Amino acid sequence: VQLQASGGGLVQAGDSLRLSCTASGRFFSAYTVGWFRQAPGKEREFVAGISRGGGSTRFADSVKGRFTISRDNDKRVVDLQMNYLKPEDTANYYCAASTIGAQVVPGPSRYSYWGQGTLVTVSS
User: Fold this and answer.
1) Three-state secondary structure string covering the chain
2) In terms of Cα–Cα distance, which of 23, 50, 42, 48 is closest to 88?
3) Which of 67, 59, 75 minimizes the C-alpha distance to 22?
């Protein structure tokens, strides 16, 4: 599967942004999909993930209550809706796909397929 992330941009604190991860290839519904982010000088961190059928989601504590994740397997898209953005949300955001297990796991090493990053910049 190939992934392409889009939707990044420059916004102000408190604004919203919607990122999309579009997949090509077969059997998209067989993949758990996660969103990760990496700020300059920091390690890549888990943001949110969604199970194959969309029935289970998981969020980092730092984004709980502000971000939601959804997927449309027919359209091969996973969206990350980001609300009440903060300057500390500034980072390159990546989507990734995993075939390991049915549950969403936060470790980057569990994800075999990665899209290119999309930059989110939140000004104060």
Assistant:
1) CEEEEECCEEEECCCCEEEEEEEECCCHHHCEEEEEEECCCCCCEEEEEECCCCCCEEECCCCCCCEEEEEECCCCEEEEEECCCCHHHCEEEEEEEECCCCCCCCCHHHCCEECECEEEEEEC
2) 42
3) 75
pLDDT of residue 102: 79
pLDDT > 90: percent of the chain: 94
Do 121 and 10 meet the contact criterion of CB atoms below 8 Å apart?
yes
Q: How far apart are CA 107 and CA 60, in angstroms?
A: 12
What's the pLDDT tens digit per position in 70-124? 999 999 999 999 999 999 999 999 999 998 877 899 999 999 999 999 999 999 9
Take residue 38 and report the two structure tokens written for it: 């990496």
User: Quick one: tokens of 24?
Assistant: 């090509």
